[in-house]
Design a protein that fits this description.
CATH topology: Pantoate--beta-alanine Ligase, Chain: A,domain 2
Largest sheet: 5 strands, antiparallel
Distance between the termini: 93 Å
Oligomer: single chain
CATH class: Alpha Beta
Number of domains: 1
CATH architecture: 2-Layer Sandwich
Order of helices and strands: HEEEEE
Strand content: 25-35%
Structural class: alpha+beta
Shape: rod-shaped
Helix content: 40-55%
Strand order of the largest sheet: 1-2-3-4-5
Length: 135
């Protein structure tokens, strides 16, 4: 009878190979999960930023409406929406010149708009409507 010699090294090589491939799989899975979370956060912040800008524009429009209703109007106000809130301030620059400063806030994101008006009667004429930095 012949005796067969078993080589235990084959089992260890297979076990180590499975562990290495498993570790690589876990590392790839974790990386993909973290990239997905980061992308989701960025997307959410971008959405909030767009909503805040829309709220700022809404308050600027409200300021224009106040001027339409009362030509000498100066003052401030705010609007509350389900997504956030906005505020506006109308200041007189003399004559028919007005400046409307409006800001919209959603969560921790705030966007600010400045509207410069150089004529109210017979129609309101805005010469500038732009986003301005916070400050």
């Amino acid at each position: 009878m012949r005796s067969k010699k078993h080589n235990n090294n084959d089992g260890y090589i297979l076990l180590i190979s499975v562990l290495v491939v498993g570790a690589i799989g876990v590392a790839i899975s974790t990386s993909l999960l973290l990239l997905g979370l980061g992308s989701s956060r960025t997307s959410h912040a971008y959405q909030q930023s767009n909503q805040a800008k829309a709220l700022a524009n809404a308050c600027a429009e409200e300021g224009l409406e106040q001027i339409r209703n009362s030509t000498p109007f100066t003052g401030s106000g705010n609007l509350s929406f389900s997504t956030g809130l906005c505020t506006y301030t109308v200041t007189s620059q003399g004559g028919q010149n007005r400046t409307i400063t409006a800001s919209g806030t959603v969560s921790t994101v705030t966007r600010k708009i400045s509207v410069i008006i150089n004529s109210i009667n017979p129609t309101i004429t805005a010469v500038s409507w732009q986003e301005v930095p916070q400050g």
